[in-house]
Amino acid sequence: MIQFYSKAWLDEMARRMETDPRFLAEGKKLNGTFVFRIYDGPDGKDRRTQWTFKQGKALEWKYEDHPTPWQALREEPFSANYVSRTTTTFEKAARLNRGEITVQRALSSPDYKIEGNMSLIMAMMKSFNVWNLIASEIPVEYDLAPEP
């Protein structure tokens, strides 16, 4: 089974976005670079993913992880080159992916933050919702073992 928030998970998401009719129909508004910082994984790692889209087509996706706390990631300033940057804990990301909480509820939490042009982000909300739906349909393992 694929580990949640791993390189394999990102690759599977990208593969599905290329063929999923829902994403092909609703994802066209995604343009630009989106960054996700995920802190405090159960395996003792922080994660950073970066996606670049053009009219809903994923041109590039990157994955990095380092032992927590990954200070360079946590102190990285927001770049105007990003459409958005989302920062949250692994646990909050897992709860969102399992459908236990909504994005709206996460946004009211102190451990979930979205930075960027909010009017642009809101215009892309349908695309984000389908992106999240595709992510949630990938069978994953959440309880990652710490590395020895």
Mean pLDDT: 93
Task: List the uncertain runs.
Answer: none
CATH superfamily: SCP2 sterol-binding domain
Strand elements, count: 7
Structural class: alpha/beta
Taking the alpha carbons of the first and last residues, their distance comes to 21 Å
The shape, in one word, is: globular
What's the number of domains? Answer: 1
The CATH C-level name is Alpha Beta
> What percent strand?
25-35%
CATH topology: Nonspecific Lipid-transfer Protein, Chain A
Strand order of the largest sheet: 4-3-2-5-6
How are helices and strands ordered from N to C?
EHHEEEHEHHEHHE
Distinct helical segment count: 7
| Sheet with the most strands, sense and barrel status | 5 strands, mixed
CATH architecture: 2-Layer Sandwich
Organism: Chloracidobacterium validum
Protein name: SCP2 domain-containing protein
InterPro entries: SCP2_sterol-bd_dom_sf
